[in-house]
Amino acid sequence: MAKKDDGSRVRDALRVGDELPDPGAAPVGPGKKAKALAGLESAGERLSALQEALFAEGVGGGTRRVLLVLQGMDTSGKGGTVSHVLGLVNPMGVRYAAFKKPTAAEQRHEYLWRIRKQLPAPGQIGVFDRSHYEDILVPRVSGLLTAAERRRRYAEINAFEQELAEAGTTIVKVFLHISPEEQLKRLKARLVTPEKRWKYNPGDLEARSHWPAYQDAYADIFKKTSTDRAPWYAVPADHKWYRNWAVAELLIETLSDLKPRFPAPDYDVDAELAKLKGVGVRS
């Protein structure tokens, strides 16, 4: 039997299927915190090198880019993932956008309008902390979308993501899968720790009360919008150390597939080296 290509090991293990992994599990990779932290340090070096090559490629006229979409229930760690994973690379090559409740100005446009404004430029890794999927999730759970309207939005989003892929964007959609028990612990921690109270939002309890409805909504989203060009991955998020390691590896595998290359110089390297020998410093 042929040996499995490790280049897609994490993506294959975490790609959304019929059932989501246990939120506290480690389906692939390190099962212990110490190993995950050591692995994340190593992953940082690889991720940084790949991102630098992609950014340089974009500066040199390339059109490719990566878009990481992070979705998940409150406290699942979208912000923490951005800090611990994207904090490993040069911020010049990252474009971050967090999507909250649409403003009055945004509501005057169709829902993808504000999304398009935040797309990464060539050579960048774009990060969406929540995304266009909020425009299905929240209205659906609130009873503001009919089944026909949901079907239309699924089709619009699939067409939008196909458009991005054809223009050179590789999309990585990640659902940070947290358990209701772990969420409760994190909400309590925010209240009892003065330094964390700024993160607490009383409205989070309203969303928590609709937990089953949100899970059903996510399951439908995965079924309708996980495509070959824009697949969904489910990352167990009860353990922050595993969540961070897994998202870093998803990005590394994705960028490794792209094989970004530094652009060739548009000048004579030897001639420039020769010039340097004769260039002094003016006093």
Which terms summarize this structure?
alpha/beta, 5-stranded parallel sheet, 5 strands, globular
Description of the structure:
By secondary structure, the protein is of the alpha/beta class. It has 12 helices and 5 strands. The protein is globular and about 75 Å long. The N and C termini lie far apart (70 Å).
Principal-axes geometry comes out as globular
Strand content: 5-15%
> In DSSP terms, counting alpha (H) and pi (I) runs of 4 or more, how many helices?
12
Q: What characterizes the major β-sheet?
A: 5 strands, parallel
Tell me the distance between the termini.
70 Å
Computed Rg:
21 Å
Counting helices, strands and paired strands, the structural category is alpha/beta
Number of strands: 5
Secondary-structure topology with pairs:
Layout: H1 9-14, H2 33-59, E1 65-72, H3 78-85, E2 94-98, H4 104-107, H5 113-116, E3 125-129, H6 134-141, H7 147-166, E4 169-177, H8 180-192, H9 203-209, H10 211-225, E5 232-236, H11 240-258, H12 269-277
Parallel strand pairs: 1-3, 1-4, 2-3, 4-5
